[in-house]
Amino acid sequence: METRGKDLDKARELLRRGELVAIPTETVYGLAANALDPKAVTRIFKAKNRPSFDPLIVHISGLDRMNELTQNVPDAAYQLAEAFWPGPLTIILPRRKIIPDLVTSGLDTVGIRMPDHPLSLELMRGLDFPLAAPSANPFGYISPTTPIHVEDQLGGKVPYILDGGPCDIGIESTIIGFEEGQIVVYRMGGKSLEEIEQVAGKVQVRDHSSSNPRSPGMLKSHYAPRSPVMLGDMLNEHLPGKDVAILSFRDSFPQMGANRQFVLSETGDLSEAARRLFSGLRQLDSHNPSVILAETVPDYGLGRAINDRLRRAATRPDGQG
Ligand code: TXA
Ligand code: MG
């Protein structure tokens, strides 16, 4: 049986039966199920080995759907949705009861986003329910940006992967919410702070804290490869002779083997760097180096989201840095 392809009818048929389908988005691949069916949503948590306290984002194909799922929507949310949807922005809003508790981990809010991928938008337009979808990776590991990444990690657990090619943006959506009427950014992502502030004015950014995170996506250790990741300045900290792999922003290192280095963008283009980041980490990780030495990138635009993911990859689950 085909497990990967572009067959929208097949994908819809599976979703209607409460099965899982991996779907392409402009950010990363999602592991989708009917957001209104608790049994289907349970399958997502099982396949990802995801703890049930980590809520899911609900994906929609039109703004009208937002009103069926949420209530008391602030004007600024409409403004941002109109400016940036479809696109890499998730908005956390007060939810309606139609959304099962499991989706929101019992919170009274739900994260909503309209992804910018033609195949998934067309898929959803033919369904009469929205799709709950976390990134299609085992919990804690790097998000998938190609259908092959999904197959490698969740093959056998997901009956169908809708193949929309490699993801354009390559890093997860920016997550925002509202606290006392103020916009708060909970996760840096594909929509830059600068772009959001142009529409909404100054916003707050929540510092990552490992204790009591408001959004578990803010857990310090996340998005991590198996090999330990260290952040550092290549030239000063490069340890010759050690089994080191290097993830650099622009520079390549002729003294290093090709398998041991990955350059994010030779021209210093942050969009290209974001698009290649997770593939690069996976590629280096697949050779089991003793450490991946990664260089941070300029801290503006998409660079902030890239640096955020690098820092979290560099924090070990045991808290050893
Ligand atoms: O780009 C993306 O956002 C991708 C694609 C597939 O849409 N999805 C994604 O989902 O990254 P996930 O589950 O890997 O990360 C979503 C994060 C989680 O860390 C979750 O804690 C947070 O969003 N989240 C979801 N609903 C929330 C809520 N009501 N309040 C606070 N955080 C929430
Ligand atoms: Mg994820």
Radius of gyration: 19 Å
- How are the strands of the largest sheet arranged? 1-8-2-3-7-4-6-5-9-10-11
CA-CA gap between termini: 44 Å
**Class inferred from helices and paired strands:** alpha/beta
Q: What is the average of the pLDDT values? A: 91
Helix percent band: 25-40%
Strand content: 15-25%
- Note poorly predicted spans: 209-213
Largest sheet: 11 strands, mixed
Cofactors, ions, other ligands: threonylcarbamoyladenylate, magnesium ion
Could you state the order of secondary-structure elements as H and E? EHEEHEHHEHEHEHEEEHEEHEEHEH
Helix tally equals 11
Quaternary assembly: single chain
Shape: globular
- DSSP strand tally: 15
Give an overview of the whole structure.
This protein is α/β, with parallel strands linked by helices. The protein has helices at 8-16, 38-48, 63-69, 75-84, 101-104, 118-125, 147-154, 193-200, 234-237, 270-285, 302-313; strands spanning 4-5, 21-23, 30-34, 57-59, 89-94, 109-113, 131-132, 160-162, 174-179, 182-187, 204-205, 229-231, 244-248, 261-263, 291-294. Helix 1 packs across helix 6 (118-125) and helix 10 packs parallel to helix 11. The chain starts with a strand and ends in an 8-residue tail after the last helix. 45% of the residues are buried. The model is unreliable at 209-213 (pLDDT under 50). The structure holds threonylcarbamoyladenylate and magnesium ion. The site of magnesium ion has 3 residues, from loops.
